[in-house]
Structure formats: C-alpha cells, structure tokens
Amino acid sequence: MNAPSTSPTIAVEAVDLSKNYGSVAALRSVSFSIESGKYFVLLGPSGGGKTTLLRLIGGFIRPSGGRVLLHGHDVSDLPANLRPTSMVFQSYALFPHMSVVGNVAYGLKLRKLPKDEIASKVEGMLDLVGLAGYGMRMPHELSGGQQQRVQLARSLVLERDILLLDEPLASLDAKLRKDMCLELKHIQEKVGITFIHVTHNQEEAMAIADRIAIIANGRLVEEGSARDVYERPVKRFTAEFVGENNLIDGRVVADAGGRLKVDTGFAAIAVDKRGSAAAVGETVSISVRSERIHLLDPGAAAKDDIQVIPADYVEAVYLGLTTSHLVRLANGSEIIVRRLSNTESDAKFVSGQTVSISWRTENAQLHID
C-alpha cells in the first residue's frame, strides 16, 4: 500500500497575474501559491498593488492577464459570489440600522437557512470573536475594534475557506491594532482556514504571518517566512523596506569560495555569499540590521568573523527601551546603531567623536539588485 501523500494542499495560486488600468500597470505578471490553512500577508508600500491583487483573488475585478486558481480550479472569470472567499474591508461596512446579530446573520438569511440554524451559527461566531453578549447592540454603540470584530464574524459565519482582509486594522489606534493582531492570529488558528491579509504595517505583518509576500511597483519582490524576510532579505528593496537596515555599497574584489571581499572605497568588508551569484568586479550592496551593529572605541581590530569600520559619532535619539545612535562613515553615508538604552554607556559618546562600528560577518546580507 502506498503511503499517504504529505504534500501540502494549495488553496490559492496566482499565475502570471496582471492588471492594467488603461496605460497604467497596477500589477505585473505576479505568480505565487498559498498553502491551505496558512496566514499569508501581502506587505508593501501604499500604491504597490497589494489591494489590486487581493481583489483579483476575490473576484471583485478581473485580470488583464494570467489566472487565479482556488483549490486547483481556475476561477479567473467567476464573480465574487461564486468563489469560496469572503472579504473583510478596511472600512467596517456595517449596516447601521441593524444590530450586531442582524449584521452577522445577513448573509445566512440570504441563503434562506432555518432561523434556529442561523441563530446557532451567529451565537457561536460572536463567541469566537469575543462579542458574546453584544448581539443586540447597534453599530454606533460599539468601539472601532468591536465593529471590526462584527465584520470579521459576518465574513467567517459564511464558512468560506479563504478569508481576504484588506487593511483590516488600519483604522485602529496602535494599542488596539496590536491586540487585534493577536486576536486575528488566534481566530485563524481556531477556524483553520486560509487568511490573506493586506497591510503596509511591518509590525502587524510580523505578528501574524506564516508567510509574507513583499509587493511593490506592481511586482512580487520576494516571499518567505517572517523571520527570513526580516533577517535574510534577498532583495535590496526588502532590506530597505522591512525593519531598520543599514546599506553599504561597494565592489567585489575577491572571491574566497564561501566569502567575498567588498571594497567600499573607504574599507574592505568580508561578507558570506550564501549562494549569491555575485562575481569579482560586480557592484553589490551589503545590509546589516541596526540592532546587529555595535559601537566601539576607535582602533578596534577586525577579525575573520568580525567586521570593523571607523566612523564619526553624530547623535543619539532616545526611544525609551532602545536608543538609536547615528554615526557617519568616511563616504558621508549614515549608519544607525540601535541598542538597549543605558544612561551610563550612552553618555560616553559625544558628537564629532571618532568611533568604530562592528558586526559579526554572519549578520550581514549581500544584495546584487
């Protein structure tokens, strides 16, 4: 007897997906797939094509080219109501004249389900999203976070297996957004369906995503786990967009197998190749996260596993838990060193002082784009 297949099932697949509005290309030949039951985040700057991509998956607009497959079936020409998806919008979009129960039950009533079945489903869904006991309240009696929970319940109660969320937390304040991030992840884990969530907020994406796709200028820049995208970005754009990376440009002058030597014009830096195709003579960028860089007294020596560059100290910006230290390199570029705030050690550096910055060689990332 053959062993059962352990291959993941694919809930969503985009194949060379494009969308044009006249001469404007909103989306350019995007391809990716999403495993069933995953929390997938489309992250990128405003106007990059994230919402266009989400609406193409949901059937609210039709592609100019390419295909959308849901569970292996081509749905490119199907309208939204015939797809196994439901949508949570940025605006709460609740019916103001209906109670919470009325809003959540609306889609079930359109299906003409028995009243007792509707009541049971609505009650269970309100309990899931933390609104048990709020059924008879009107939308204007709810906070922003509670209204968003109602919209989430209204979508989930339809029992579609792909939920699309378009900037669902954008209207919430920072504290509530953070709380709702955790709630969304917990709810997704409980219901076990596929969530596709659009946001431009990096912390939001990191908190909830099983996988992240970076979308910018209508293109898929790169895709990976939250940890990979944050700590090991492949593309320079990702390194610049996600978190706080410092970038140093230079030219490859030597290749020692698994490690390259890069001449920046003011220092020689070693960086691990990690499969990069960068060759001697090629222009590259090196990114190092601000929290991975250390401030040292001048004259510290470099080692095989430690890179050291001289710099001039500029200023410190106190941010509470951490302090950002700004230093200037010999070519005039500025580097941010972020570390836990410490009054005594922070006070030892003054503007104009010569210092050194360092990082472990393994903590730098090479980019050739």
CATH class of the largest domain: Alpha Beta
Q: Write the H/E string, N to C.
A: EEEHEEEHHHEHEHEEHHEEEEEEEEHEE
Q: In total, how many beta strands?
A: 20
Terminal residue distance = 49 Å
Number of domains: 2
The CATH architecture of the largest domain comes to: 3-Layer(aba) Sandwich
The major pleated sheet works out as: 6 strands, mixed
What fraction of the residues are assigned to beta strands by DSSP?
35-45%
**Major β-sheet strand ordering:** 6-7-8-3-9-10
CATH topology of the largest domain: Rossmann fold
Oligomer: single chain
The CATH fourth-level homologous superfamily of the largest domain? P-loop containing nucleotide triphosphate hydrolases
* Structural class by SSE content: alpha+beta
Low-confidence stretches: none
Mean pLDDT, to the nearest integer, reads 91
Q: Tally the helices.
A: 9
Output the radius of gyration: 25 Å
Structure description:
With 369 residues, the chain is an alpha+beta fold. It has 2 domains: 10-231, Rossmann fold; 245-367, Beta Barrel (OB fold (Dihydrolipoamide Acetyltransferase, E2P)). The protein contains 9 helices and 20 strands. Strands 6-7-8-3-9-10 form a 6-stranded mixed β-sheet, sandwiched between helices. The protein has a 5-stranded antiparallel β-sheet with strand order 13-12-11-14-20. Strands 15-19-16-17-18 form a 5-stranded antiparallel β-sheet, with no helix packed on it. Helix 3 (115-128) packs across helix 4 (144-156).
